[in-house]
Amino acid sequence: MINTLRDITQSVASANCLETALSLLVSQTKSAMQTHCCSIYILEQQELVLSATEGLSPNSIHRVRMPLSEGLVGLAAEKEEAVNLADAKSHPRFKLFPEVEEEEYRAFLAVPIIFQKQVVGVIVVQQPQPRQFSENEEAFLMTLAAQLAVVVRSLKNKAAINNVQQQVVFKGTPASKGIAIADGFVLGGAISLKQADVKCVDIEVETQRLKDAMQRCSDIISTLSQRFDRENVDEVASIFSALQLLLDDASLGGEYLREVTAGWQAESAVSRVSIRYIQQFMDMEDPYLKERASDIRELGQKVLRQLIEPDKLELAPGKPVILVAKEVDATLLAEFPRGKLAGIVTELGGVNAHAAILARALGVPAIVGVDQVLSADIDDKTLVLNANSGQLLVSPSEAIIHEYHSLISESKAQQRQFSAEISLPAETLDGKRIQLYLNAGLLSGLSTDMAEGADGIGLYRTEIPFMLHQRFPSELEQIQVYKQVLSAAHDRPVVMRTLDVGGDKPLPYFPINEDNPFLGWRGIRLSLDHPELFLMQLRAMLVANANSAQLQILLPMVSNLDEIDRTLLYLEQAYSEITEELARAIPKPKIGVMLEVPSLLFQLEDVAKRVDFVSVGSNDLTQYLLAVDRNNPSVSSLFDSFHPGVLRALKWTITDCNRYQMDASICGELAGEPMGALLLVAMGYDKLSMNQGSIARINYLLRRIDKSELEQILDKALTLTNGEQVRDLLCQYLRTKNLLSILD
Fold first, then answer.
1. What is the pLDDT of residue 228?
2. Short-list 691, 705, 704, CA closest to 175
3. What is the set of active-site residues?
């Protein structure tokens, strides 16, 4: 049964259009179940449409339509469960459609195809003799429907996109607010193994193209193989070793080249060889040899990717585009031409993944968790990205584009209103001064950003320069970067966080493979395990700050006091070395810790004896308090910084910090959200660090509220049971102040 299910699924998934896929599905399912009839109905605008059949009249395809409230097929969709009847005609929901010519059929089994709680269609099998389909038959059809749900949904979207009469809307989770209208720029989409047979013009040129692609592919595979060798993951390393062997001249690599010599274009050669050998291996009886077909497929797709879109970013788009990718990392965002990035859409990632944070820092609209967007044909299509509501519109009408242009104009007008006051201090109506700091990571545009209302840099993410290198940056390279950051701040304070990689921020040249990276080797843990790297970074920071007193050093992911003590020893060592080398005293920076790990909440008295300040990382603190992986779209709805438990922890923190006379600030995303800023100010936080795009908005808001009123709101918020209630309370308050539009 498993092999049959796999064969049907692979056959349907490899189809290039919905019509072909559904035809294959019904014919192969009919054969596998040895039944007389198999049909599939696709849900379109709340109607089930007969879309393919083997056994009913072919003339009825696309003509038979029924609402969910009608017929046995509608019953399966409506109840979202299988309907298995020995004699369909005796059921009260039975409805006869004369044009389908199904009078002879009695036995009836219908199973809904469900994708993410939404019915996509219904698959039906029928037989003339009255009998109930067996449990095994029902289980087979249900398993097949579950496996095919993603494929059918994907092909359905693709078909709709190619139909100019239909408006296609993809849904995702907002990660960085804003609206963008631009063409799609798909990076890393699925590469089809089936390429057109194209004869080449110049065999020498094609041979060199293929050799170059194979070499790049070999380098990538070699890096991965070495990584898993180093980590003693033998089974995974052996997979890459097998792929490497397949690239040899004596194996598939030689076959690819011989096909080019025979006169085929490189892409065609790889495709022809791969498909030929996949078929040969699939026809073998030995299960192990059959599985090797997947190795051939994987290698073929890797080589084709190097041929079809090698370093696609080097071909910079001529106009702003909306980047569509499986996942976006910090390096990709940093390398992408800044003026050409209108928006970001990803299939994976969470709203508080590092890439999402960077998107907010760049002021680029972004949505994440958009299922199956890569398999749709949207490259170069006109897209409207509404990251305020989490929607991606494909090939919208002129009227809709005009409407969104109006919304963009309104948003820009609102931003101009905020910016008009940015030079004025962020001070509440009852005289409480709040300092607004900038979260930064990219040097580009930093000088301009600092000139626009920030009291300093509250968080400089030093890992970004590390991510932009192909190796660890040298001490001199780090000194130059840190000097630029300090200079851009114009004598204002700069909080530099030491290297914080791991979790959702891997270094390409220092891979970390862990089952649960957010609870693993990251932040200060990694730095303390590599003192040679840590000392180099501390020295570079001290040298860069040698002629100023701006620098403050922040330690990430601190979970115990011993980590602070060991860091202070390394800092003292670095300080002694630099003062000796420079033959003069240099300023000693203030030291702080990121408050992200909940255990540290209960040791703030001891923390205050060791460091000068704490900076609350609300993203990770929320993640660990709620036990929610903030990068997992499946549980993203549970990640809520407005959860009363999180709010109480934040209130606890500032109360203890004040008691022990230790400065406290917030550098997580909560500080840049209007409702979050209101609650934090009410708690007593007077240092908020945020992305540049939030500073003018938060300044404008704080200048129109009364802190004493907010304290009363906070008292109520802390008694509520969930984050949604907290938001409703704050919305009511903003409405009374005529400030509700600030949330748009």
1. 44
2. 691
3. 354, 667
